[in-house]
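Practice problem: predict the structure.
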Amino acid sequence: MIVDDPTAHRSRWHWRTLDNAADGLALDLGLYAVSATFAAITAVTSTLLPHRAWGAVAAVGYLLATLTVIAQLLLRRRSPTSRLTGLPARWTVTGLAWATTTLLPLAWQSIDRAGGRTDRAQEEVLVVEQAGTRLLEHGTPYLGPDAIAALPPGEQLMGYTPYQPGMAMFGLPRALLDTWWTDSRVWFAVGTALALAVAVAALPRTPATTGQATIAATRRRDAAVLRGVQAATVLPICALTLATGGDDLPVLALCLLALAFAAAERPGRAGLVVGLAGALKLFAWPVALVLIVWGLTRRSGTRVAVGAIGLPMAALVPALLVDRDALTENVLRFPLGHGLVTSPAQSPFPGYLIANALPAGRLIAAGLLVAAGVAIAVRLARRPPRTAVATALICGYGLLAAIALMPSTRFGYLLYPLALLTWAPALHRPGDTPTAAIADKRSGRTTSA
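Answer:
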C-alpha cells in the first residue's frame, strides 16, 4: 500500500495514548457515564417530546453499561488477563448498550406511534415516509412549488423533502403497510447495522507474516475498530438521532464503509458505496470528493468517480424527468434558503451567530464558508491523502468546519465529523508503522505492503 505523510500518524498516536488507559476500559467508563448524564438531562429538560422519551429509556441503558464497566475495572485489578475485561467483552457491552439506548427506545416509540401517539417521532420521519408514498404513487418523492404553496402555512415546511431521491426508499415500507415495523426509523436502523457490519468485515486483515510489532499494531487497530463503532452507535448524538429521527445514520454508516473499502485498497467499491450515500443525502458528497482525490493518488480516480458521482446523478434522473421544478425546489432552493419557508435548523454555531448578529452577516458567513472550502481544496491539491486514515481525517475536519460556518445548521450534524474522526484510527493497516511513513516522506518514496 502507499504510506501517507506523518500527520495522520501523529494524530493516531495521541489518540492511542488516551484510549490505552486500562486497556480501553477507562474511556469506556467515561463514555457511558457522560452519556447517562446527558440522557437523564434530556429526559427532564428537552422541549422535544420524542427526545424526552428517548432520554427516559436511554439513561437506564447507559447506567447499566456504566456499572458493567466499573465491575470490569474492579475485576481487571484482581485478574488483568480475565476474559471478562478483554476486547470481546467490551464488544458485548457495546452491543448491549446499543440495544438498550437505541434499539429499545426506537422500537418503543415506533409501537406507540403505530398505536396512535403523535409525539413519538421527529418531523424527518414523517417527511421520509411521505416521500416514499409520493414515489410509489407519482414516481417522484417531491412536491412542486405550486403544491407546496397550496398547503396551509403551518404545513408548508412538511411539504419539503430536502433529501436526495434515494432517501425515499426508506419510506416505501410505510407506504405499503401501516404498522410499527414499517416505521422508517426501523429501516434506518437496519441499514445502519448492515453497513457497519460490512465495514468491520471489510477492514484489512493482519498480514500473513507477522512479528511482535505487527501483532501489537493489530491489537491496537482492533481496539480502534471498536471505538469507531461505539462512536457511530452508542454515542448519544447518534443514539438519540437514530431513535427519534434517524435519516443521517445510514448515510454516516455508508461513508464509514466507503472508507473501510479504501483502507482495503478497493477503490471501485469505495466509490459505489459513497455514491449510494450521496444518493441519500448531500452530506456524503464532500466525502465522495475527498475519496476521488484519494483515488487519484493510486491512479484509480476514475474507478472511484464512476460510483461516487454516477450513482447520485442516476438517482436524480427519474425525479428530473417526472417534475424538474419539484426537484429544484426541494433539493436546491430550500436548502439554500430560497424556498417558500426557511429551514428551522438554527443551532448557535459561529456561522449562524455571524449571519444573524452582524450587518451583512449572511454574506460574511458565506464568505468564511467559501474560504474554508478553498483552504481544504488547496490542501488536497498540495498534499492529497494517500491513505484512508488521512482521507477520513480530512473529511472529519472539513465537515466540522463546514458545520461550524454554515448559516443554518443543526447540532445533530456533528455526528458526521465525530464519527469520521474516531473511525480514522481503525483504518490503519496492521503492517504500517509511523517510522516507515516518516522515512518515505523524507525520501520522497512510496512503500508497498
